[in-house]
Amino acid sequence: MTPKRRWLRDYTPHRVPVRLANNQIIYSAGVGSMLFVSEVLDGEKGSKSRPVLFSRVLHVPELGSNLLSVIYLIRNHNFHVHISSKRMDFERDGTVLFTASIDGSNTAYLAGEVVPVVESAQLSVTSTLPLDQSLWHRRFAHLNHASVKTILQGTLVDGIKLDSNSPPDPICEPCLAGKLNAAPFLSSSSRASKPLELVHSDVHGPLPVRTASGMCYWVMFIDDNTRFRYVVLLKSKDETFEAFK
User: Fold this and answer.
1) Does residue 33 share a domain with residue 102?
2) Which end of the chain, N or C, is more open, meaning fewer C-beta atoms within 10 Å of its C-beta?
3) Environment class of residue 34 by beta-carbon count within 10 Å: exposed (0-12), middle (13-18) or buried (19+)?
4) Rounded to the nearest 5°, which phi and psi values hold at 125?
5) Residues in Cβ contact with 64 at an 8 Å cutoff, skipping those fewer than 6 apart
6) Which has the closest alpha carbon to 203: 218, 214, 183?
7) Superkingdom of the source (predicted)?
């Protein structure tokens, strides 16, 4: 298990519960494989590097440390583990594939390093659209055009390619929709069949000046059947439900 997503290859979502030593339950987010280059002692020659691919590695974002199940390796992958006071050797088919050093707190750490998955912004080869500023605006999660232009001019990101210098479209519908306070309500020809079956409500405030009694909000209720209107002044918005009752 590891909390580091960047280490995992062939990543797929996978959610399972993980019970910690303090009985707390956290959840995995995915599973993949991890390439580890181990440092293995080679007799009098010192150490040598050996690549090892760990499969079925759980990605657990809330985990504080990387964890390796020794029992799982023994039961499922035919490993033999030799433990001394300062070292663990993980052997399979007569060959030591990786080792772990044991510190004073009785914790073992694998000798070597993980090869992280190389991530790049080289997305241009998969696009059939013109590589202009508008496309990069959308790829950067609709980042404002001024910041996109700064990124392009300053070459702040590796792998960005620009095929067209055409100015971006000033109207971006997703940006406009995301900045709307509320979508307009559709008109309806239906009407409630009896009073209080449907009540429309709206709260307004705070007003720039309070009333003499300290009111700075108001709430309106409109009965859909009778169109009867009722307005209540409020000192704070948390009084809305009492006003409704």
Assistant:
1) yes
2) C
3) buried
4) -70, -20
5) 3
6) 218
7) Eukaryota
- Supply 80's token pair: 């033999």
SS3 94: coil
* 29, 4 contact by CB (below 8 A): no
Q: Tally the domains of the chain.
A: 3
Task: State pTM to two decimals.
Answer: 0.47
Domain that holds residue 45: 5-114
Does 152 lie in the same domain as 74?
no
Q: Tell me the two tokens of residue 132.
A: 């202009």
Verify that 66 and 100 share a domain, yes or no.
Answer: yes
How many residues in total does the chain contain?
245
Q: Where are the alpha helices (DSSP H) in the chain?
A: 70-77, 133-139, 145-154, 173-178, 240-244
Based on the domain organization, do 168 and 130 belong to the same domain?
A: yes
Q: Concatenated DSSP letters for 209-223? A: S--TT---EEEEEEE
Residues 104 and 131 in one domain: no
Q: How far is CA 88 from the centre of its chain?
A: 36
Q: Which two tokens stand for residue 207?
A: 């007003």
Contact present, 116 and 6 (Cβ < 8 Å):
yes
Tokens of 59: 């990605």
